[in-house]
Design brief:
Layout (H helix, E strand, L loop, with lengths): L15 E6 L4 E6 L4 H7 L24 E4 L11 H4 L9 E3 L9 E5 L7
Length: 118
């Protein structure tokens, strides 16, 4: 007999999950599988700082201006993508590109995080 660990299954694609935007103080209920960037923009939350609100890559992972800090378990989102790989050594481990993060479970995020002081 095989024993499975007591871990909750991720919601199936299409189910709604709560996503809290900490800086904005709002919790949204999103379809599982949506990117954080698409969810934010659809609700008037812009993940891009300053002038990058107008000039960015449009969500393909090239400009890195939509970076967010994840305050949740990694199981609540997809693993880092190839588009993010080139930046992993330059950012804290909990930073991701919102255009590449697909929500699969409850999560809290900080838009436009500030780099920690060294």
């Amino acid at each position: 007999m095989v024993t499975m660990p007591d871990t909750p299954a991720a919601p199936a694609e299409g189910h709604t999950v709560p996503v809290t935007f900490l800086r904005e103080g709002v919790t949204l209920h999103a379809q599982s599988g949506i990117t954080l960037r698409d969810l934010a923009l659809a609700h008037g939350i812009n993940p891009h700082p300053h002038v990058r609100k107008l000039f960015n890559c449009g969500g393909i992972g090239d400009c890195t201006t939509c970076v967010v800090r994840l305050a949740a378990e990694p199981a609540a989102v997809n693993p880092p993508t190839a588009a993010e790989a080139q930046w992993r050594d330059r950012w804290p481990a909990d930073w991701r590109l919102s255009c590449q993060v697909r929500v699969t479970g409850p999560i809290s995020v900080e838009t436009r995080p500030r780099r920690p002081r060294r």
